[in-house]
Amino acid sequence: MSTDTLSARQAETPSESADWADQAEQRMLAAAIALAPDLGWGGPLFGKAAIQAGLSRGEAMLLLPNGARDLAALLSARHDQAALDELAGVDAKTLKMRERIRRGVEARLDAAIADQAATRRWAGFLALPLNLPLALRLTWESADRIWRWAGDTATDENHYSKRAILSGILISTLAIRLHGGAEAASEYLGARIENVMAFEKWKAGVKPADYARMIAEALGRLRYGRS
């Protein structure tokens, strides 16, 4: 970062600085979404996105010190928020729980498909072994937001098992949506949450150690195009 740029940042109020940072991150994300189909998701994408966002490499690294991983997290957050915006017009209380979860998953899938080409590259990046911890965190956060919208208030072990299960549903259904189309994804999703009792029975059989394996397998399907 240049001395003039640093001085300008220091002269801003905390609120102005935060606004600048948020806007710069979103410019980088928008550039990354456009560039990802050709560049993939990684270091070259990060560098080119910074340039297109009007930032130096140093400025970009101050904003997003984990590089492409932070950009991946921004894309996931973008899709989470788009899903919640879509769900804002739905009165969850009028739906059965299984219907709420289906609506939540569908909204999240629609958000990801809106950036379909970039989402494919994003998924391939997260499928790399070194990025599995990030993939676990991001899918967990997405599942948590859907459960909270659905009105889940569990604080015992069910809080974790519900999110682990829904994480697996989200990523595996996304793989099918990307490679098999909307109809195949809808059928798969319906089979997973056909009714509350089946969902509860399935949930009860999941152990914490299964979570990483479920996500890793689903990410592999995303990366290699298998449904």
Short structural summary:
The chain has helices at 3-11, 14-39, 43-52, 57-63, 68-87, 97-113, 116-126, 132-150, 157-180, 182-192, 196-204, 210-224.
What does the model show?
This protein is an all-alpha fold and 227 residues long. The protein has two domains: 3-65, no CATH class; 69-224, no CATH class. The protein has helices spanning 3-11, 14-39, 43-52, 57-63, 68-87, 97-113, 116-126, 132-150, 157-180, 182-192, 196-204, 210-224. Helix 5 (68-87) runs parallel beside helix 8. The longest helix is centred in the first third of the chain and has 26 residues, at 14-39. It starts with a helix and ends with a helix.
Helix and strand string, N-terminal first? HHHHHHHHHHHH
What is the tally of helical segments?
A: 12
Secondary structure category: mainly alpha
Helix content class: over 70%
Overall mean confidence score, pLDDT? 85
How far apart are the first and last residues' alpha carbons, in Å?
Answer: 45 Å
Number of domains: 2
What would the keywords be for this entry?
227 residues, mainly alpha
Write the layout of secondary structure elements.
Layout: H1 3-11, H2 14-39, H3 43-52, H4 57-63, H5 68-87, H6 97-113, H7 116-126, H8 132-150, H9 157-180, H10 182-192, H11 196-204, H12 210-224
